[in-house]
Amino acid sequence: MLKLAVLVSGGGTNLQAILDAIDSGAITNAKVEVVISNNPGAYALTRAKNHGVKGVCISPRQYRDREAFHEALLGELRASQADLVVLAGFLVAIPPSIVEAYPNRIVNIHPSLIPSFCGVGYYGLKVHEGALQRGVKVTGATVHFVDTGTDTGPIILQKAVEVKEGDTPEILQRRVMEQAEWVILPQAIDLIANDKITVKDGKVWIRA
Ligand code: GAR
């Protein structure tokens, strides 16, 4: 049974998709051990509570500096004995100390087709603002392993989503979530939980 630590910052719809997929059997051999938020007001923590899952807030404000915050985060991850760390809308950069502690054991959902609209400064609605500003006709979402760069790790799954005339960043964000994020994040977790994924030369290979 793969133990998951799910890291969140906001609404937690991706967390909800994971919890629902475990309940429905779309994800097998995995269990959410803990939900960790950097933001005490994150609705994701309420979702965890409603589901009977342990929720913890580790806010940078509680610590004297960034290093102490990172240590506390790593300490909580270790205490949970998580096998896989899932960044489900976690809008905090993961430091090298945590990446090195979990090599190819941290996955992130990003709301674009990487390598478009990703990297430093592209998170949440800003990603969709960028896509609309550029006028792309297709966008989507990507699940990838986390390395020490920003959105640069091996790509596990991607799904394309149409951009429509009249889209606002909010409308596009919702479509990308519904059609792509809530689909491919649970799928990727299921593949990892069932040992279907290998990483070689920075690329992901999926066994049928
Ligand atoms: C999601 O769209 C996720 O892809 C994005 O934040 C949102 C969180 O929503 N993540 C990033 O932009 C990471 N760079 P949620 O809290 O409802 O799951």
CA radius of gyration is 16 Å
Globally, the shape reads globular
What is the strand content?
25-35%
Low-pLDDT segments, ≥5 res: none
The amount of helix comes to 25-40%
Number of strands: 9
Biggest sheet: strands side by side, in what order?
3-2-1-4-5-6-7
Please write the string of helix (H) and strand (E) elements.
EHEHEHEHEHEEHEE
Which ions and ligands are bound to the chains? glycinamide ribonucleotide
**Which structural category do the helix and sheet elements fall into?**
alpha/beta
Catalytic activity: N(1)-(5-phospho-beta-D-ribosyl)glycinamide + (6R)-10-formyltetrahydrofolate = N(2)-formyl-N(1)-(5-phospho-beta-D-ribosyl)glycinamide + (6S)-5,6,7,8-tetrahydrofolate + H(+)
Pathway: Purine metabolism; IMP biosynthesis via de novo pathway; N(2)-formyl-N(1)-(5-phospho-D-ribosyl)glycinamide from N(1)-(5-phospho-D-ribosyl)glycinamide (10-formyl THF route): step 1/1
Family: Belongs to the GART family.
Enzyme class: transferase
Question: Which structural traits does this protein have?
Answer:
6 helices, EC 2.1.2.2, binds glycinamide ribonucleotide, 7-stranded mixed beta sheet, Formyl_transf_N_sf, transferase, alpha/beta, 208 residues, GART, purine biosynthesis
Descriptive notes:
With about 210 residues, this protein is α/β, with parallel strands linked by helices. It has six helices and nine strands; from the N terminus they run E-H-E-H-E-H-E-H-E-H-E-E-H-E-E. The chain has helices spanning about 15-25, 45-50, 65-80, 95-100, 125-135, 170-195; strands spanning about 1-10, 30-35, 55, 85, 105-110, 140-145, 155-160, 195-200, 205. Strands 3-2-1-4-5-6-7 form a seven-stranded mixed β-sheet, with helices on both faces. Strands 8-9 form a two-stranded antiparallel ribbon. Helix 1 crosses helix 6 (about 170-195) and helix 5 crosses helix 6. The longest helix is centred in the C-terminal third of the chain and has 25 residues, at about 170-195. The protein is globular, with a radius of gyration of 16 Å. Glycinamide ribonucleotide binds near residues 10, 11, 13 and 123.
